[in-house]
Fold this sequence. Notes:
Layout: H1 8-24, H2 27-38, H3 41-52, H4 59-68, E1 74-76, E2 83-85, E3 89-92, E4 95-98, H5 99-102, E5 105-107, E6 114-116, E7 123-125, E8 128-130, H6 132-137, E9 152-156, E10 159-163, H7 165-171, E11 172-174, E12 181-183, E13 189-191, E14 197-199, H8 200-206, E15 207-209, E16 216-218, E17 223-225, E18 230-232, H9 234-244, E19 264-272, H10 277-288, E20 295-296, E21 305-309, E22 313-314, H11 315-335, E23 346-352, H12 358-369, H13 372-379, H14 383-389, H15 397-408, E24 418-419, E25 425-432, H16 437-456, H17 464-474, H18 480-486
Antiparallel strand pairs: 1-2, 3-4, 5-6, 7-8, 9-10, 11-12, 13-14, 15-16, 17-18, 19-21, 19-22, 19-23, 20-21, 23-25, 24-25
Helix pairs in contact: 12-15, 12-16, 16-18
Amino acid sequence: xxxxxxxxxxxxxxxxxxxxxxxxxxxxxxxxxxxxxxxxxxxxxxxxxxxxxxxxxxxxxxxxxxxxxxxxxxxxxxxxxxxxxxxxxxxxxxxxxxxxxxxxxxxxxxxxxxxxxxxxxxxxxxxxxxxxxxxxxxxxxxxxxxxxxxxxxxxxxxxxxxxxxxxxxxxxxxxxxxxxxxxxxxxxxxxxxxxxxxxxxxxxxxxxxxxxxxxxxxxxxxxxxxxxxxxxxxxxxxxxxxxxxxxxxxxxxxxxxxxxxxxxxxxxxxxxxxxxxxxxxxxxxxxxxxxxxxxxxxxxxxxxxxxxxxxxxxxxxxxxxxxxxxxxxxxxxxxxxxxxxxxxxxxxxxxxxxxxxxxxxxxxxxxxxxxxxxxxxxxxxxxxxxxxxxxxxxxxxxxxxxxxxxxxxxxxxxxxxxxxxxxxxxxxxxxxxxxxxxxxxxxxxxxxxxxxxxxxxxxxxxxxxxxxxxxxxxxxxxxxxxxxxxxxxx
Length: 490
């Protein structure tokens, strides 16, 4: 039987016959046929060549490959489900695809499932392909049409808009007053001094611009200045207040050079106002400047504390002009609801050093520091307040001499009954704050009385009793407020 295998035509016949035997011949005869072909190398090569020319491998051919043990690898295409030679197969996302199907197959960039472009719908965005399911799950910004992973939904004119973070920030704004959203292209908008956006309607109804810096401010939060009929933001209003403060005149109304009357008195009046510092400062500026001016006081409330100093005045000038101005000021402050009594406020009265010589200064200090209980009574301060702002400890002759020397050399303390640290004047700091005219005048009269008394009295004779006798005997009308307030001689 071995000779018939040498004829190629017989091989072809056997091939055609094998196709029929695959269906009708008994299994044992088919097995004998296959076993004889497997023994002939030329026959196996001939079959391999035929198979490699096939577009696809059917089941019969696949079985023949297996039964003949041919060195041919095949794979099923996951798209068309046809079996192909392995060299006609490529792998896409771990799936086997034949060379024909690979031309019309792309992967979904989201789920990586394969899309057959001739059979399935393909959705493209920004150069990427999506299957229908993945594309339907995407959320797009309605402004820039970009895919949004964390979308923002806002309501604009009764319609909801889906946006990315960038478009929400750059293309839309939320009114800080009404909280509504608007497109920046469709609505005029304004920015207040805090960087908040305001829509056009809210701007016209509830906002205005600061008359000084132009910043947008809420009308309810603006500060109105009736003197200029203008509205200001808090910062500019504070600047306006400050411009009225600390405007100490750079000149003096008079020269204190009268040798017969070298005494000159000045004053610092501290108090707290009822939120109307600017109105008070305007009044002082318009009506009393340059005799009086306003300044802030750090020892009082930052927003409500004020201090009004005055220029030094001779006693004659004070009686002629200063007293009336002082009374007008105190009356105005009381009408404005200002307070001084019961607060940290005080009254400081200054006496020019021109009116003192060394002996007089010593006697003046002696009166204060040898009579601390009397000075405390005259001050009308609380004990703790007195000790904090104007301490007056009892000193003997040696201690008084030491204090006089140290204070005159600039080593003294500010918070004492008599502050000697200033170059031009001595400051009497003992008095409690008050806006009552008779009480303020009583304090001035007391300082004037001590000055005049110690000027003519011998140092060894300085005493409270002789001081009060001097006040009553010299000219009681000049000290009537002091005499009445402390019941001198009563």
